Amino acid sequence: MEYLERRQALVDERLEAIVGGVEPDRLAHEVGHTALSGGKRVRPTVTVLVCEAVGGEPDDAVDFGVGIELVHNASLVVDDIIDQSARRRGVESAWTKYGYGPAIIGSDAQLGEAFALFSADPRAMQTVTEAMVELGEGEATELVAQPSSEAEYMELARRKTGALFRAAAELGAIATDADAVTVEAVGEYAERVGIAFQIRDDVLDATADADDLGKPTGQDDEMERPSLLQVTDLTPEEADQRAHDQSEAALKALSRIEVADEQAHEYLHDLAEFVVIREQ
């Protein structure tokens, strides 16, 4: 775990520095409430690990990792407003603590800081822009054209969750100036991990304890949100198997890359297995 903690610490230190530079101070405080309230830091960790796995150093990818975490956090602020979710990561959600207007402004500020980190690299800008288009279309689909089949749900999960995971991994490869084949392979790996992550989220929403999860449970049923369990007749156990299938596909994609750092590669392998058994 020390290996991962060192990399997460690099991300946290840079994230704290960026939040500390936001002006005015009140906005920095509001951004910090969301960005620094904890979280698994899965996406930026993927960015850094992919960079190392294909031949880079952790510092090469930290800014891209922080950027993708800021984009993710900004999307969570909006998700909580849509869902009227009062808690996130065990604390008050941004709209509950500050109100709708400040929460949205804080979300916009995080996007601005993120794109400042991507702006020097055209490939990075294109990758994140495409992911945000997918994310936005996925969120809109969830609201106005809900899926009615497993296939439609999987496409929604790819857009709503998988696309940002894909971007996180591709950014790690881009940070080392990797070739297009490598970027595509790690992108597919991470997209599959993201879909598995979303399916497991659906299962946890239906089965976990809210205190253990750090946010309200039962939200999918209450909000009539299209979870895999709601859209299909699958049991939680069967849904978990779908997540395992995605995990296996992710590992097949990961096997296509030329590995420069075995330890980083091993952690990416472990992540694909972990997301389907996590309890938070």
TrEMBL record:
Cofactor(s) in the UniProt record: Mg(2+)
EC numbers for this chain: 2.5.1.-
Signal peptide coordinates: none
Keyword set, alphabetical order: Magnesium, Metal-binding, Transferase
Pfam families, A to Z: polyprenyl_synt
Enzyme type, top EC level: transferase
GO terms, biological process: isoprenoid biosynthetic process
GO molecular function terms noted in the UniProt entry: metal ion binding; prenyltransferase activity
Gene3D superfamilies, per database record: Farnesyl Diphosphate Synthase
Similarity comment: family membership: Belongs to the FPP/GGPP synthase family.
Name the record gives this protein: Short chain isoprenyl diphosphate synthase
